[in-house]
Amino acid sequence: MMRRRVLGSMRSAMLAPLHATIIESMSDPSLDRSAILLNAMRQTASGEGAVSLAATDTIQRWLDVMNEESPAAVLARAALAAAKATNGGNRRLVRDGLGFLARQDRSVDERLFTRQDAGVRWTLDSEELVAAVRRANLAVEAMHDLSLAFGVEFFELLGLRNLSSTMGEIFAREIHRGLSGKVGRNPNQDGYPDLIALTPQGVQYLREREDRGQMSDKSFWSPFPFGGIEVKATCGNTPAAAQVAKPKIGESRMSLLQSAEWKAHHRETNNLVGVFWDFVDGLPTFLAIFFRNDLCVDDWGRIVQPREGGGRTTSVSLMQRRGVEKMGQGWLVLPDNASMLTQLGRQRVFAFGDVTRYRFSRL
Question: pTM (2 decimals)?
Answer without folding.
Answer: 0.79
